[in-house]
Amino acid sequence: MRLEFSETFQQELPSKYLKFLNDHPNGIDIEHNEDDDTRYWNMMGKTELLKRWTMNGVGEAANYECLKLYTHIEGENLDELYIDSAFGCVELKRVARGFVIGHENGDYLYLDPESNFSVWIYYHDGGDITKISESFDLFLKTINIL
Fold first, then answer.
1. CA-to-CA distance for 42 and 128, rounded, in angstroms?
2. Which of 49, 55, 76, 128 could bridge to 69 as Cys pair (CB 3.0-4.6 Å)?
3. Which residues contact 74 (CB under 8 A, 6 or more apart)?
4. Which pTM does this prediction carry?
5. What's the rounded Cα separation, in Å, for the pair 75 and 93?
6. Rounded to whole angstroms, how far apart are CA atoms 120 and 115?
7. pLDDT digits (tens, 9 = 90+) for 113-135
8. DSSP letter string over 4-17?
């Protein structure tokens, strides 16, 4: 699995994430509590991560790289190429390089390769983002597998 992703994503994914993926190759649902907000995420398995789809008028991407499609739309509609977050302004192109690992109700859970693969949420309504964990390892300590 590491070879497939290193060839397509061209990043070394965190070993804890790769172990999680190998332990749950078909994906799994999790519960995550953040600031009194409980969310139920579908963590994608190997096949679902690599599944390709097309966004009309924008392009095609695998699920793990789908943020490049969403940010492309935002980039056409924003005066600036940044997204405001609680952690300051984040370049849109940085979000586009995120590695999507899960989804829930149209929002995406992703790893940010530019900040030690910290865990973030991309909110599809409005294109906001927020960091929820400094690493996938720490994120694992805050979830319940359903």
1. 20
2. 55
3. 83, 92, 127
4. 0.85
5. 9
6. 10
7. 989 999 999 988 877 888 999 99
8. HHHHHT-S---HHH
User: By the 8 A CB rule, do 68 and 61 touch?
Assistant: yes
66-82: per-residue pLDDT in tens?
998 888 776 654 445 65
From CA 146, how far away is CA 135, in angstroms rounded?
21
The answer to whether residues 31 and 38 touch, using CB atoms and an 8 Å cutoff, is yes
Amino acid type, 82: Y
Total residues belonging to the chain: 146
- How far apart CA 31 and CA 19 sit, in angstroms, is 19
Distance CA 141, CA 137 (A): 7
